[in-house]
Specification:
By secondary structure, the protein is α/β, with parallel strands linked by helices. It folds into 2 domains: about 1-30; about 40-140, Nucleic acid-binding proteins (OB fold (Dihydrolipoamide Acetyltransferase, E2P), Beta Barrel). Helices cover about 35% and strands about 35% of the residues. Helix 2 packs across helix 3 (about 55-60). The N and C termini lie far apart (about 70 Å).
Length: about 140
């Protein structure tokens, strides 16, 4: 009986360890050096979410995407740097910059068009992107 109990505990431990390792790798992957699955305008992305949120969640959520649009606002609240891209809709794209992003946000101007790559986390009136980096290659084309 003790052997079965030990085997059970070791199995549970290994499953939990495997799951935690998977989560760390999944959420700490470098957005900067990973290819985007989609490149889409802020307006188009918001339109897709507003027309069919469930389908858009399946398509974009937890995927690395590149968004382009005009800067509506730059925020520095709570030691977080956030760039908000405007669209033709009432909603926006909220891009929370990665701590490793070296861009000086003071050089970015309102209405400037930017390409920003990040992990889409979904839609809550606005689309949220985390771990964002400016796509320097596309921003200089």
């Amino acid at each position: 009986m003790a052997k079965k109990y030990s085997f059970f505990l070791i199995s549970i431990f290994l499953l939990v360890l495997g799951y935690l390792t998977y989560r760390v790798i999944l959420f700490n992957k470098s957005v900067k050096n990973t290819e985007s699955e989609f490149t889409i305008s802020a307006t188009q992305l918001l339109t897709e979410f507003e027309q069919n949120e469930k389908q858009s969640d399946k398509k974009y959520t937890n995927k690395i995407i590149t968004i382009y649009g005009n800067v509506k606002k730059i925020s520095h609240l709570n030691n977080r740097r956030t760039i908000i891209l405007s669209s033709n809709n009432n909603s926006s794209i909220i891009c929370d910059l990665d701590d490793k992003e070296t861009i000086d946000t003071n050089t970015i101007k309102v209405n400037q068009q930017l390409y920003i790559k990040g992990i889409c986390k979904g839609y809550l009136k606005d689309v949220i992107l985390l771990n964002c980096f400016l796509d320097t290659q596309k921003n200089h084309e």
